[in-house]
Amino acid sequence: MRRHRLTALTAVLAVGAGLLVGCTEDEPEPACDAVSADFDWASPSRSDDARFELTGPGWVAGDSTYSVQLPDGRTLWLFSDSFIGEVSESGTPAPGLAMVHNALLTEDATGQLTTHTGSGPESFFPDPGPKSYYWVQDATVVGKKELVVFLSRNRQDGGPGIEGFRWQRNAMATVSLPDLEVTGIHEFPSRSGAPPIAWGAGVMTTPTQTYVYGIEDRKEHKYLHLARVPAGKLTDRSAWRYRSADGWSTDPARSTRLTDAVANELSVSPYEDGYLMVSSDTSEPFSDRINAWTSCNPWGPWRDEQTIYETPETGGEHFTYNAHGHPELSEDGELLISYNVNTFDFEELMGNPTLYRPKFITLDLE
């Protein structure tokens, strides 16, 4: 199947117009082999789909699907809106099925999954108000005893469905390890003059830095931003530096747009001698495309995206979104990628929550 790429001319015109920023004059773009990658079409990974074909009791469906490798060897899966309860093999919900706004699952070495929510069930990260709640973003382990989870605080502004909420502000949760107890939730609203950026869409760690990717969501257009923090200081907001038009700044208002057409969840991970970004395409509403970009730097320039997959579930009332990679769970020479499936028909979702389970594909990196 033919891949879609931006032409080099298009990328140059975009940068020349001042819409997007990559390298600066004081940081010339290095040469790297990663930017010459030409990926094959990704392949469905049915065995990874099957991991979440659960009937309960516990988590049976949800979206977001972030993953983190914990120091004790378990894998932590982080989900936003989730169904908790029991369903039949055919997807029919049992009485008492509930939806919470976030939930965690731990997976041990045998593949056994354990659900973590508040009692009731309630969201693992408690709702901050009667009409407000948290969705999870990416997460990372700090040291060996603490997990930091980015949260997106939203407010219910209407009925159920994809248009019934409004983003309010960012938050970071700290969770103790290995017992997974919430030790704090710290909200940080956008500062005056700064664009409304949801931080934590993706997190990449190196031995010296933590890179935190954010999304400036303007509905029809979504723009990528980046902050970096010295290793071990993620919760110290004074240590954050924001990628600006001329380097790095302590002022979040100077955070600049690095590229567009990305989704609210994505991933950036090392690839060859550079970096690989994976995201659902948002250049048009409810696109079925999953794209990949490569760059020599964590901040880009992100040029010449390649479409690596078109989701077969998209069509009619169904749509897909929020693709991102799971490098810590990938085989050598591959990248495991998840994406979410949903429906515009809320009654359909309530009648068969299993359509809301994540799907997986693998991208050959060699």
Label this structure with key terms.
Tachylectin-2, Chain A, 5% helix, 24 strands, disordered N terminus, 366 residues, mainly beta
Summarize the topology.
Elements: H1 8-16, E1 43-44, H2 46-50, E2 58-62, E3 66-69, E4 75-79, E5 82-85, E6 98-100, E7 103-107, E8 113-116, E9 132-142, E10 146-156, E11 165-176, E12 181-188, E13 197-205, E14 209-217, E15 222-230, E16 241-244, E17 247-249, E18 266-271, E19 274-280, E20 289-295, E21 303-310, E22 318-325, E23 334-343, H3 346-351, E24 359-364
Antiparallel strand pairs: 1-24, 2-5, 3-4, 4-7, 5-6, 7-8, 9-10, 10-11, 11-12, 13-14, 14-15, 15-16, 16-17, 18-19, 19-20, 20-21, 22-23, 23-24
